[in-house]
Amino acid sequence: MENTPSPFVGSYVFLAGLSGAAMLLSSLLDLTRGRGAESAVRRSRYLALLAPTISAACLVADLHTPKRFYNMMRVFKRTSPLSLGSWLLVGFGYSAGITAAAQFLADRVCGLDWLRWIARITQLPGAIAGGGLATYTGALFSATSTPLWAAAPRALAVRFGAASIASAAAAMGLRERRSLTGRDLDSVAIAALTAEFAAILAADHDCSRAGVTSALPPSPGTVTEQYAGTGLGTALPLGLHIASLLLTRRRSRLLSGAASLAILGGSLAMRCGVMAAGNASARRPGTSLRFARPAPR
C-alpha cells in the first residue's frame, strides 16, 4: 500500500492559504467599502488568526518537534521557498494578531474606537504577507524533484493562490447578509474559481508534455484531486455561484452557501489530493526518469 501524506500538511497548506487571502480581502473591502463591509471585514480579521494558531500547530505537528520549526528561523534565504514561507508565517502572525486584538477591543470596550484605525494600519503589512502566504506553498512544492509538482510550477502556484482566494471569499460570505458585500464576495469567488480552472488546464498540459501524467496510473491521490478537488471544489461551486448571480434577481443565500461549503471542502481535498498524487509520481522510477530526461529539440 502506498504511503499517504500526513493530514497535518494538507491542513496547514489549506488554513495558511485561507488566512492569508482573508487578510488580503479584508484590506481591500475595508479600503473600498468602508462601513458597508464592516461585518465581513471583522470576520476576515478573525479568520486570519487560523494561520498563526491552528495552521502553525499543524506544521509543528508534522515536523514532530518544535525545534525543527525554530531552526527554520535561524537563517533567511531568499532563494528558498521554505525559508521565505517560514518568515512569511511569522510576520503574518504578528500582523494578524495585532489586527484581531485591536478589532476585538474596539468592539468590546467603549471609548477605544481609535483602535479601529490601528487595525486598519496593521492589516496592510498583513495583507502583503498574506498574498505571499496564499501562493508560496505552490512554489514550495514545485521546488522539489517530485515530477507532478515540478512539471508545472507556475500553474501550481496560480492554482493554490486562486483556491486560497476562493476559500477566503467563501468563508467570509457564509454569514454575510448584506446583499452588496455578499455579491462582491461571490464575484471574487467566481473570478478565483475561473482562474483556478484555467490553472488546472495549464497544469494538465504541462504535465502531459513532460510525460508525467501519461505514465501515472490512477491512484487515491489523483482520484481525490480530480473528483473532490476539481469537481467538488471548482466546477460545482462555479456553477452554483453563476446560477445564484444570473438566474435570480437577488443573491440566493441558499445557492451561495452551498457553493461556499463546496469550495471549502474541495479546497482542502484538492491540497491533499495534489500532495498524494505528487508523492505517487515520485515513487515510480519510470515517471521520474521520463521527467528527468531532457526534452527533444
Describe the structure.
The protein is mainly alpha-helical and 297 residues long. The chain has one domain: Formate dehydrogenase/DMSO reductase domain (Formate dehydrogenase/DMSO reductase fold). The protein is built from 12 helices and no strands. The chain has helices spanning 7-32, 38-47, 51-63, 66-72, 81-108, 114-142, 147-150, 153-173, 179-209, 220-246, 253-282, 285-292. Helix 1 packs antiparallel against helix 3 (51-63) and helix 8 runs antiparallel to helix 9 (179-209). The longest helix is centred in the middle third of the chain and has 31 residues, at 179-209. The model has no long low-confidence stretch (mean pLDDT 82).
Percent helix range:
over 70%
Number of helices: 12
Using DSSP, what is the number of strands? 0
- Straight-line distance between termini: 39 Å
CATH class: Mainly Alpha
Radius of gyration: 20 Å
Per CATH, the architecture is Up-down Bundle
Q: What's the short version?
A:
By secondary structure, the chain is an all-alpha fold. It has one domain (7-290): Formate dehydrogenase/DMSO reductase fold (Up-down Bundle).
